[in-house]
Amino acid sequence: MGNTPHVAIVGAGFGGLGVAEQLDHVPVEVTLIDQHNYHTFQPLLYQVATSLLNAEDVGAPVRSLFRHQDNVTFRMATVTGVDMPGHKIQLKDGTQISYDYLVLAGGTTVNYFNTPGAAEHAFPLYTLMNAVKLRNRILERFEATDRDPALIDDGALNFVIVGAGPTGVETAGALSDLFYNLLPRDYHQLATEKARIIMVEMGKEVLAPFKDNLRAYAKEELERRRVEVRLGEAVAEVGSTFVRLKSGEEIKAHTLIWAAGVRANPLADMLGLPQGRGGRIKLNPDLSVPDHPEIFVVGDLGEVTSDGKVLPQLGSVAMQSGEHVGRQIARRLHGEPGQPFRYWDKGFMATIGPWPTGLLCLAGRSPGATERNAEQDRNPVELGLVRFNPRPSRQNYY
């Protein structure tokens, strides 16, 4: 590499890709490190889990994404630590990678909140492998029940979803379409109408980040689609064939889908840096690490702020923070001062039912949005509902 500055990026999610792409035409060498050689479009994982999409539809090979960016090299590896004084990344295979600038974009992992049995029996939905595993589980339970209908009474066709945020709501809507509109055509002898979808949420409403009328409408729409919504309930224990709630109620269920929360990647714990809620690394306004100006953190791994407000863990935050850090590295190389990160909130959405055949819910702003957003966005996303005519299509079962 000679005297060319070396930028190491850990994580090929939205944030990591944003940094690498921003460094195109910047005089640096970039090494992008991830334990998988593909990028996952996480917002659509629920569609893989519910057979609406194939796995390859939401996964893109990292190397092909940078086929035309010569200063990026990809390394498939697992990071086990960082020697910050020595500016070296330690890999699982025992090798090390030196860096001049380090960007940590490791994302999140599932947070079970110490719920007994959840780690052993729950099905999270945060990685592509999670989605494929859940899809196979759903179809396997229907196959088993088709062979032995007595399993219905044991809860084989009861599916509990923990968490009523966008992931939980979108998964519930897609499962409803799968169970009640599509699978009955294939399981001619099975009483598929006996399948149950039970959503358990500790809070008092679904889609908490959305406005009041959308929360109420989303709950009504879920219930219309035969989703049983349990608000103000929390899971006390998870077993292989049951879910016990803190109220004492026990639900017979062979499958529990965990969509209740995340925490920062364990890499954050290894570094010994100050952490905030959910293990997120605390950062300077320009997204560098305090006392380590050569280290930046983007996306869900860091406590990313804009105008003093902590931002939610969203893909849009990860992408914009990654692009920002790419620009800050370029500024450093030119001897220019750093700039604080400013988030442009374009809004967010959740869908109930398979796109484009379901209900589209739009919310105008994320928590922590600033007045600057209204000035930047001449066509801001307004709060609203859009309904599409249902036209179920054949699913990607296998």
Task: Give a structural overview.
With 398 residues, the protein is an alpha/beta fold. Helices cover 26% and strands 26% of the residues. The chain is built from ten helices and 26 strands. The strands form eight sheets. A six-stranded mixed beta sheet has the order 5-2-1-9-21-20, covered by helices on one side. The protein has a five-stranded parallel beta sheet with strand order 11-18-12-13-14. The chain has a three-stranded antiparallel beta sheet with strand order 6-7-8. Helix 1 (14-22) packs parallel to helix 9 (315-333). The N and C termini lie far apart (45 Å).
Low-confidence stretches: 368-398
Spatial ordering of strands, largest sheet = 5-2-1-9-21-20
> What is the rounded distance between the termini?
45 Å
Q: What can be said about the biggest beta sheet?
A: 6 strands, mixed
Structural class: alpha/beta
If classified by CATH, what would the architecture of the domain at 118-260 be?
3-Layer(bba) Sandwich
Radius of gyration: 22 Å
Name the average pLDDT.
90
Strand content: 25-35%
CATH homologous superfamily heading of the domain at 118-260: FAD/NAD(P)-binding domain
**CATH classification, class level of the domain at 118-260:** Alpha Beta
What is the CATH topology classification name of the domain at 118-260?
FAD/NAD(P)-binding domain
Envelope shape: elongated
- Helix content percent band: 25-40%
Number of strands: 26
Specify the number of helices: 10
